[in-house]
Amino acid sequence: MKPFLSFLPIVTLFFTASVEAADAGGARPVVGFLAKAKGNAYFLSCKGGADRAAKELGVQLLFDGPVEGNAAKQTELVEGWIARRVDVLAVAVEDKESLSVSLRKAQQQGIKVLTYDADAMTDARSFFVNQATAEGIGYALMDEAARLQNAEGEFAVITASMANANQREWMKHIEARLKEKYPKMKLVASRACDDRREKAQTETAALLSAYPNVKVIMATCSPGVPGAAEAVKQAGKTGQVKVIGLGLPNENKPYVHAGVTESVILWNTGDLGYLTLHAAVALARGTLQPGAKSFEAGSLGKFEIAGDNILLGKPFLFTKRNIDQFDF
């Protein structure tokens, strides 16, 4: 027994080193895929695309997130994945400044980091998988609002949270477009719904009461669009007040067909998850390097890389004419 016991640590050491070498070589990377809110239909749709990519690539996908938007809970989950020594983190960031501290720590410990949906500080990740440029989203929303009210009159905004980096960035471009092109339009108020449909409905109802001349409600988060639409419907203002926003086709179809919601602006969220997972695995395996100009993502083909942003594409407009063609 004594010789065997003497040999056992060597075997154990060899086995551990072999596993670590296999992981380092990218044989089966473990990817921590973090949502802002794991029950949100938007992020579940992203997960669907990521699951498909993980199966193709033969990697282990760990999907998690707070029940609702919560920066402290996101940090806790990232710290847990650091302790577990995952290979790469793909993160939709709730609060840029706070989460970037933990993401830098992950990088210092050899864990690769990229972001999707909402970015971290640039030194806290290698790439951002950008669903559409902030300018493109802001301009698309503002132009659609202007079209619906003949470029004049009042409109209001339902946002997710005043702390969300992408929400703030989108609002910056909405306001810039408003100032530049639509001098006869007025943004009367912005209200946060904390990424909750029920709160979006409550806040919209309050806006309709406080600002009876509002012609368009613009929601910049996926739960906000059906929440705002339900408030307009309940207020008996279908046709008088139009709802637009960033949302998922499936949860907005009834309101679009009823004429409450005029249009939904988004991108293919499944494609976003798929592209993010492919990029995460390539980053872990060393086949995606800083300075790359393009990236090949499985069945979706080639994507442009602008600086450190991997670009999914331009926003897409879902309307009564085409919304039934999409199922997500």
- β-strand percent reads 15-25%
Q: How many strands appear in the DSSP assignment?
A: 14
Shape: elongated
What is the strand arrangement across the widest sheet? 2-1-3-4-5-13-12-11
Task: Indicate the low-confidence ranges by residue numbers.
Answer: 1-26
- What class do helices, strands and sheet pairing give? alpha/beta
Q: Profile the largest sheet.
A: 8 strands, mixed
Q: Please work out how many helical segments DSSP would assign.
A: 10
Could you give the order of the helices and strands? Answer: HEHEHEHEEHEHEHEHEHEHEEEE
Please estimate the helix content. Answer: 40-55%
Report the radius of gyration as a whole number of Å: 22 Å
General description of the model:
This protein is of the alpha/beta class. The chain has ten helices and 14 strands. It has an eight-stranded mixed sheet, with helices on both faces. Strands 7-6-8-9-10-14 form a six-stranded mixed sheet, sandwiched between helices. α4 (96-108) links the parallel β3 (88-91) and β4. The radius of gyration is 22 Å and the shape is elongated.
Task: Spell out the blueprint of helices and strands.
Elements: H1 2-24, E1 30-34, H2 41-57, E2 60-64, H3 71-84, E3 88-91, H4 96-108, E4 112-116, E5 127-130, H5 134-148, E6 153-159, H6 165-181, E7 185-192, H7 197-210, E8 214-219, H8 224-234, E9 242-246, H9 249-257, E10 261-266, H10 269-285, E11 294-297, E12 301-306, E13 309-311, E14 316-318
Parallel strand pairs: 1-2, 1-3, 3-4, 4-5, 5-13, 6-7, 6-8, 8-9, 9-10
Antiparallel strand pairs: 10-14, 11-12, 12-13
